[in-house]
Amino acid sequence: MAKYGLDISEHNEGTLSSYHAWDKIKESKFKDFIILRRGYGVTPSQDSCYLQWYKNAKRIGIDDISSYWFSYALNADEAKIEAQNYIKITEQDGLALNALIMDLEDNGKFRANGITLTSKFINQQIEAFIGELKKAGLNSALYTCQWICKDLLDWDLIKELGCGIWNAAYSQEDAIRGWMFQYTDNEYIDGIGPFDANIMY
Questions:
Q1: pTM
Q2: What's the CA gap between 149 and 154, in Å, rounded?
């Protein structure tokens, strides 16, 4: 049976600053799970709302909570460092999570450094980042867009890593049918939003 949930970050702070907004989520179909941005980059930078969002999700009865890390790594060595920082911070939190997720998508830092998304680049980043999560014994998944899934992913590597796939494609059918599908970034719940909305198979 399919489940529905949201993925959120500090960018949703204005929308989710009140208990009233969270209670609306509790009353909606999007109460099955939630995914929170933990941080981003090599430095690392932490999401300022992560801990509060975790507490709020627990308060309304959401126990299926995962987190993600937006990768800005320019090579495999940096991807490995990002994953190590992500693991360290997660361990310091001491909070129960379903999965740790690598968010790998095109971004301005890649373009500014002349990086084109090729199959070789994408898969070396995944192997380095997810490989660290697996070495730590953690449930892991990859978030990326549908065209990367279809055109660039090494599916033998994904199978070897035991990595769940969280596919994103708006106004399209899910051609991957992995762990989860992000089908919109424009979901409203009783007038509040917009949210990224997801279906978990």
A1: 0.96
A2: 9
* pLDDT number for residue 1: 86
Q: Is the pLDDT of residue 82 over 90?
A: yes
- Cα separation, 70 vs 32, in Å, equals 23
**Do residues 142 and 101 lie in contact, with contact meaning Cβ atoms separated by under 8 Å?**
yes
Q: Where are the alpha helices (DSSP H) in the chain?
A: 19-26, 50-59, 76-93, 108-112, 119-135, 146-151, 155-161
Q: Which domains does the chain have, with CATH numbers?
A: 3-200 (3.20.20.80)
100-103 vs 65-70, strand pairing mode: parallel
Burial of 171 (0-12, 13-18, 19+ CB in 10 A): exposed
User: Does the CA dihedral 10-16-17-22 come out positive or negative?
Assistant: negative
For residue range 121-172, what is the model confidence (pLDDT) as tens digits?
999 999 999 999 999 999 999 999 999 999 999 999 999 999 999 999 999 9
